[in-house]
Please model this.
Amino acid sequence: MNRKDSYLFLLTGVSLIVLINFRNLFTDELKYYLPAALMMREGLIPYRDFFFPQMPLSAIFFIPTSTGGWGGLMLSRSLASV
Model:
């Protein structure tokens, strides 16, 4: 695999991640995980302080990227697509 093929492979991977991030931008299953991760980041405990209909590990996975803005959403979607 030469350098040109490596760049093509990298460009294809990055473009697929961008495509996955912007596909169905407003219909997303992260609407449960990110707010729960944000509340857990603030010290609240799921099932006691707020309702969370999923297992807690799924929200714990998104705690580092839960900033509450578009940047955090895009970073979380990139993380979920990998």
